[in-house]
Design goal:
Structural class: alpha+beta
CATH superfamily: Ctag/Cox11
Radius of gyration: 26 Å
Number of domains: 1
CATH architecture: Sandwich
Order of helices and strands: HEEEEEEEEEEE
Helix content: 10-25%
Number of helices: 1
Length: 192
């Protein structure tokens, strides 16, 4: 018969418990960090790929301009703000690769200072990867005083690769749609 001697407790506690606690803390910190990074990372992904009709930004216009034209239609919407938001043109015919300029006007019709932010998308979604903006008011907080109107320009182009892609080469119309939303946690000040 063999007898086993009882194991003596480790004087400083079990080393495995400390390691498990550190791993759990690291996982928790990583998950919180991922939650905060999710929205900006998703936005970057969408802008890079055109996913969900998201338009990407460009630093410069293309040097190649095609003879083929595409009708670009503009759509404006407001959700949760007492603002009037209109486009100064319903559509533009633009040559692929050429730079277009469109103007949008927003008016605060309330008696309060309000802040909004415009999000956008492109239809058909396949065209989003080729619809590029050089200047845009989107994803930037816009604060308007009561009764104030502001004109916003959008400078854009359609990448010439649009005409080569099998999913977009036959498309003759693109719709650029903007929607203004209230900025959460923005102060609402009374009119002065």
């Amino acid at each position: 018969m063999s007898s086993s001697a009882p194991s003596e407790p480790h004087p400083k506690g079990r080393p495995g418990n400390t390691r498990i606690a550190l791993i759990c803390a690291a996982v928790f910190v990583a998950m919180v960090g991922a939650a905060f990074a999710a929205v900006p990372l998703y936005r970057l992904f969408c802008q890079a790929t055109g996913f969900g009709g998201t338009v990407s930004r460009a630093d410069a216009a293309p040097t190649r301009i095609l003879d083929r034209k595409v009708a670009v239609r503009f759509d404006t919407n407001v959700r949760g703000l007492p603002w009037k938001f209109v486009t100064e043109q319903v559509s533009q015919d633009i040559r692929i690769g050429d730079t277009g300029l469109a103007f949008f006007k927003v008016t605060n019709t309330s008696d309060k200072v309000l802040t909004g932010r415009a999000a956008y998308n492109v239809v058909p979604e396949q065209a989003a990867a080729y619809f590029r903006k050089l200047e845009c008011f989107c994803f930037i907080d816009q604060t308007l005083r009561p009764g104030q109107s502001v004109d916003f320009p959008v400078v854009y182009f359609i990448d010439p690769r649009f005409a080569e892609d099998s999913e977009t080469k036959g498309a003759s119309e693109i719709t650029l749609s903007y929607t203004f939303f209230p900025v959460e946690n923005s102060p609402v000040a009374p009119a002065t």
